[in-house]
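Reopening this one. Same input as before:
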Amino acid sequence: MSIANYSTSIDPVKTAGEIMGMLSTHGASNVVVTYEHGVPSGLSFTVPTGFGDRGFELPVRATGVLLAMQRDRAIPRSKCTQVQASRVAWRVARDWLRAQLALIDAGLAGLDEVMMPYMLADGGRTAWELYAGSQGQIEGGTQ
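Same output, byte for byte:
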């Protein structure tokens, strides 16, 4: 199966706007889009949690998408461009966020819970980056 949305023609700026709207209707404030060379590359936002307002940073890594598209021989080579990868990355991020918000709407999780890997800690690093840098700090459990 090919990467989702590989044929999209929707501009990343439009998709970033859709994501901003989705987040704002779920309580996010200070939603900010990050740009690299005039192209959206990620976004950050703040949400109120049971522990106070928390910042989150959602990366949208078009370079990784481009590599995945290049590995997939079912995707036409004409689609394997950085511009197209950016479009695809933003659509995939939007779809992922929509699925996470469905969990929240169904009462299965909270926004801070599903976004925890992207929560910003002091120093601007995400919870995932802190975890990845210190693997031994969280012991694996068993069922």
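So the earlier flakiness isn't reproducible anymore. For the record, The mean pLDDT is 92.
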